Backbone:
């Protein structure tokens, strides 16, 4: 039922009567609890009315929750309990009755048909006949007609429509291949044996069933009786239980005033100057609006799970979006940024002149977000809480690649065509063909690119199929944040599903459709930075400064060392400021107050950057341009932004100050400006000018200000969001400035699964003079740590060392540090710390404290384990060594036995480092490139600089080949994708082969010399296999956008030098 609401709305808009139903899977004779048979018969169910729709929702939901086995299944028992208000049709050849009729098993057909007839209300069960060009269906139809006469069950004629027009059959065939991961040449792929599975016309239906016109008539009879009207749009909040002496309004007001009193204590403690009466007046104003709009329950629900999270020590963000402008939210500790000092507007969040649901977006620590969702599920009921589905769609580039794959074309061919799509966000394939001459030529002058089942495949074939499939849903996913909460089971509002093996309920409707159905969405976002901040604080508080535990709220908003860090561009890991572009902007801006940080978050976006606003702002801040105001009365509104309109709230305040608008009315003007409707803007201009006239503002000046507001409404950003996220920026920047080792260790832990970022952050830490050490069984925990002013790798970073092994190591260490390998083997649980774990620990350097060659330790593992095992057996038996009792404990452990290490030399440096990288994925104790550092800096740029380069820029980089993937092209040549690594990180290189004795067009109109490229592939392959010395690679930067979201840079290889 995934598309129900979308279909319903579109049908209504088109003046078509929507009929809601689903094709159910009905389990075999043993019921849906049975797992011994895979059979599941099709059955069409159609909702006649609201009761039928409710039954559909339940049946669809329980099929996923309780009956999933290869398919979401129901059985006849549950169907009988939920059959009211439903019409049922016997479906296609997959239906129980229809398949029995095809097989000629009329006894089974009669028995099943009679069962279904008894399940449904009189006149609600039909035998379904179809005409689709399938011989088996024709045979079934004849027996279905006889069955209708025998059992007095009416016939119903339908079209088994899988696509709209007959000519769409080919595209649908490819779509099935995309869904199943098959190619057209795969003989085992799912395929239809007919091209007649389209939406047939009334005339065709009458012609197909001219001998049984009553079957076509009954189709209309069913349609006429289906009169389902969905009640959409009214939100239904779950009930929040309040004390008996309270209503939701009075309870929220009591909590808000109590919370405000606590906030006053915090402000006094911080030495802040404030007017309590101003706060109380603002709180009363907000409470009045919230209560009139009926949203007290919403605020109570949100404050409850946020405050539960805080009590459970789960980091929660200070705010997100316009909700940070609410003083009630601040008093209830939903947010942690006081809105009054920064002129954050409540009306931007909740407008009394435009009733709409409030929407708090809440950031939680990424690692513990699920705990909050679990709390909500337990509080409101597991069946009453769920997450929201999303649908991944076939977009321009991805659909081209998919179609080429299904046609059996080489990856390089699909990649070549896809890369011709211009890098424009949201561009459609049709627009791409119109804009890109080479794509247009592929349509108008097609060339052969392959062959399928003996027929040529042309570029036009690829593009036409891709155009037909573009925009279709590819696969379901789960919304990154959306959670719905109800006070009764979700299926009473929407159908739900559960992915196989999962316990989480997920709505079958996407975000907008869920809200249309009446459920209220709460956004629980996971923000990695909150995890970094908490982990950094935890490391700091192991040895807190001045003996006082440091909390997030203790971090000041003003700090000279922090401003210097930003001005110096030392922003790696600083929230919002990590990108090279933001770093460049903030180095020019040189923030000197929190207001500058708020503005920076609003300014670093395409609109302000492209319009020149950012340069004006920076020049005015530093006195290079005079600060001017459009009208003297606007100085209080624009002073913090040097006379530049940066925020949406400033547009609202200008309307209030000059035009006499209420802030609610001003918010409506802001929204209208964003929509750019000419007739609406004309009316708004007149209203603004009239208000200005009453306030004695010159009409010419007022008109110019309105034009300015309209222009900046395109660029203006939500100040409440920028302020709340600016606070997170401050927290990360301050921690990095004052506790760089702890902060970088926390940052590395958060990025432990991203090799490129770990390499980059290790490089940054070392450049800043911070030593990065390998793991150590005596000092490392699971994550990266800070030890004696150095960053220490965690044991969790070692490949093959699981949580059980680490727990055993940490537990054994409570009795004191390990003296060496033998002592370690005697004390840890050998069932969890086996030989493979020990080998990985040694290769990673976790026993380097012994000051022995790693190879010596490695060759000694087996004898250390044998002695450890024997010692543990003796202890378990209550025995001890006679020699041990006589000699007493020795420094090396082992009850007095001598630690017998293998006498071998250390591995060669390259081999030792290779083992280290194999164990933890990185070079830590050294790097093969260290000896070439000066030469690389002289002749090449860091590989990470490619990500900041311009398209088509010529660049030379140097490093070692870390990985290589080769693919043959359709001409038998080889092309390669290469990972090149240096001390800063890694980058992907693309090395194209020659083609037909001519230079190769790489798909972007550039040509790569055939001989050089082929030699390049061979050279890269040789170096990758031999782990040779570094190489210099010159090439052209290409920007690609493989996932349609985040652009990445590659280097097209043109030259390779040793």
Residues:
């Amino acid at each position: 039922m995934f598309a129900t609401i979308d279909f319903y709305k579109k049908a209504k808009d088109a003046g078509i009567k929507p009929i809601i139903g689903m094709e159910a899977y009905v389990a075999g004779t043993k019921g849906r609890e049975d797992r011994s048979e895979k059979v599941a018969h099709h059955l069409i169910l159609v909702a006649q009315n609201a009761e039928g729709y409710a039954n559909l929702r339940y049946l669809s939901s329980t099929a996923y929750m309780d009956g999933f086995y290869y398919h979401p299944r129901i059985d006849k028992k549950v169907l009988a309990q939920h059959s009211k208000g439903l019409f049922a049709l016997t479906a296609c050849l997959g239906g129980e009755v229809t398949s029995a009729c095809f097989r000629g098993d009329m006894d089974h057909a009669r028995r099943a048909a009679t069962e279904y007839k008894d399940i449904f209300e009189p006149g609600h069960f039909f035998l379904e006949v179809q005409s689709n060009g399938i011989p088996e269906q024709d045979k079934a139809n004849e027996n279905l007609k006889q069955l209708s006469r025998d059992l007095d069950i009416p016939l119903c004629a339908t079209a088994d429509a899988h696509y709209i027009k007959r000519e769409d059959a080919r595209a649908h065939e490819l779509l099935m291949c995309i869904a199943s991961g098959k190619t057209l040449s795969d003989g085992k792929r799912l395929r239809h044996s007919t091209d007649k599975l389209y939406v047939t016309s009334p005339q065709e239906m009458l012609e197909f069933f001219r001998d049984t016109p009553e079957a076509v008539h009954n189709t209309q009879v069913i349609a006429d009786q289906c009169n389902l009207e969905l009640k959409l749009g009214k939100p239904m909040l779950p009930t929040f239980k309040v004390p008996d002496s309270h209503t939701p309004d009075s309870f929220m007001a009591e909590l808000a005033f109590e919370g405000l009193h606590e906030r006053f204590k915090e402000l006094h403690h911080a030495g802040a100057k404030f007017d309590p009466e101003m706060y109380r007046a603002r709180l009363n104003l907000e409470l009045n609006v919230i209560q009139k709009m009926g949203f007290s329950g919403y605020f109570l629900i949100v404050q409850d799970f946020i405050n539960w999270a805080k009590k459970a020590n789960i980091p929660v963000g200070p705010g997100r979006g316009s909700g940070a402008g609410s003083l009630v939210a601040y008093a209830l500790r939903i947010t942690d940024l006081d809105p009054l000092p920064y002129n954050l507007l409540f009306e931007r969040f909740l407008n009394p002149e435009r009733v709409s649901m409030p929407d708090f977006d809440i950031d939680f620590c990424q690692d513990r977000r699920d705990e909050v969702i679990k709390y909500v599920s337990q509080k409101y009921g597991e069946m009453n809480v769920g997450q929201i589905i999303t649908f991944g769609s076939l977009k321009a580039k991805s659909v081209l690649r998919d179609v080429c794959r299904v046609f059996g074309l080489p990856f390089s061919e699909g990649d070549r065509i896809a890369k011709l799509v211009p890098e424009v966000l949201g561009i459609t394939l049709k627009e791409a063909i119109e804009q890109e001459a080479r794509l247009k030529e592929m349509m108008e002058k097609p060339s052969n690119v392959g062959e399928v089942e003996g027929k040529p495949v042309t570029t036009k074939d690829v593009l036409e199929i891709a155009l037909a499939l573009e925009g279709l849903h590819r696969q379901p996913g789960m919304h990154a944040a959306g959670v719905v909460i109800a006070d009764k089971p979700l299926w009473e509002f929407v159908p739900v599903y559960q992915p196989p093996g999962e316990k989480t309920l997920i709505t079958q409707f996407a975000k907008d459709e869920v809200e249309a159905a009446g459920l209220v969405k709460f956004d629980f976002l996971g923000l990695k930075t909150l995890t970094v901040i908490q982990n950094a604080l935890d490391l700091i508080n192991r040895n807190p400064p001045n003996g006082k535990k440091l909390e997030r709220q203790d971090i000041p908003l003003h700090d000279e060392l922090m401003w210097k860090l930003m001005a110096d561009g030392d922003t790696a890991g600083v929230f919002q400021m990590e990108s090279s572009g933001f770093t460049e902007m903030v180095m020019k801006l040189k923030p000197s107050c929190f207001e500058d940080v708020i503005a920076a978050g609003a300014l670093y976006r395409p609109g302000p950057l492209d319009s020149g606003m950012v340069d004006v702002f920076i020049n005015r801040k530093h006195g290079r341009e005079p600060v001017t105001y459009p009208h003297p009365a606007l100085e209080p509104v624009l002073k913090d932004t040097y006379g530049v309109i940066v925020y949406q709230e400033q547009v609202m305040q200008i309307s209030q100050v000059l035009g006499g608008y209420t802030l609610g009315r001003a918010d409506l003007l802001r929204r209208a400006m964003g929509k750019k409707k000419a007739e609406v803007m004309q009316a708004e201009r007149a209203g603004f000018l009239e208000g200005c006239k009453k306030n004695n503002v010159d009409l010419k000046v007022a008109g110019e200000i309105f034009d300015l507001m309209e222009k900046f409404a395109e660029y203006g950003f939500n100040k409440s969001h920028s302020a709340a996220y600016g606070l997170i920026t401050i927290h990360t920047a301050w921690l990095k400035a004052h506790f760089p080792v702890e902060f970088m260790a926390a940052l590395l832990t958060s990025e432990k699964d991203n090799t490129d970022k770990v390499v980059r952050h290790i490089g940054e830490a070392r450049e800043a003079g911070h030593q990065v050490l390998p793991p150590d069984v005596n000092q490392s925990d699971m994550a990266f740590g800070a030890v004696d002013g150095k960053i220490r790798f965690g044991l969790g970073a070692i490949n093959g060392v699981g949580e059980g092994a680490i727990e055993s190591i940490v537990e054994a260490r409570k009795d004191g540090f390990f003296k060496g390998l033998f002592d370690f083997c005697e004390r840890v649980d050998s069932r969890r710390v086996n030989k493979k774990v020990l080998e990985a620990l040694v290769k990673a350097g976790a026993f380097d404290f012994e000051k022995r060659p790693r190879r010596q330790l490695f060759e000694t593992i087996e004898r250390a384990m044998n002695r450890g095992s024997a010692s543990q057996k003796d202890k378990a038996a209550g025995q001890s060594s006679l020699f041990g009792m006589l000699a007493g404990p020795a420094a090396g452990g082992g009850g007095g036995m001598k630690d017998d290490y293998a006498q071998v030399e250390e591995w060669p440096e390259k081999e030792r480092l290779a083992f280290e990288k194999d164990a933890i994925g990185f070079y830590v104790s050294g790097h093969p490139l260290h000896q070439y550092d000066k030469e690389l800096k002289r002749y090449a740029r860091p590989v990470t600089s490619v990500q900041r380069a311009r398209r088509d820029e010529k660049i030379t980089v140097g490093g070692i080949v870390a990985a290589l993937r080769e693919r043959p092209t359709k001409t038998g040549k080889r092309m390669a994708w290469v990972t090149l690594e240096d001390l800063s990180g890694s980058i992907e290189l693309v090395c194209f082969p020659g083609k037909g004795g001519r230079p190769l067009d790489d798909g972007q109109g550039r040509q790569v010399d055939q001989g050089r490229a082929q030699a390049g592939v061979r050279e890269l392959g040789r170096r990758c296999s031999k782990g040779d010395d570094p190489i210099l690679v010159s090439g052209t930067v290409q920007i690609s956008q493989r996932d349609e979201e985040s652009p990445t840079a590659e280097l097209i290889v043109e030259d390779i030098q040793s």
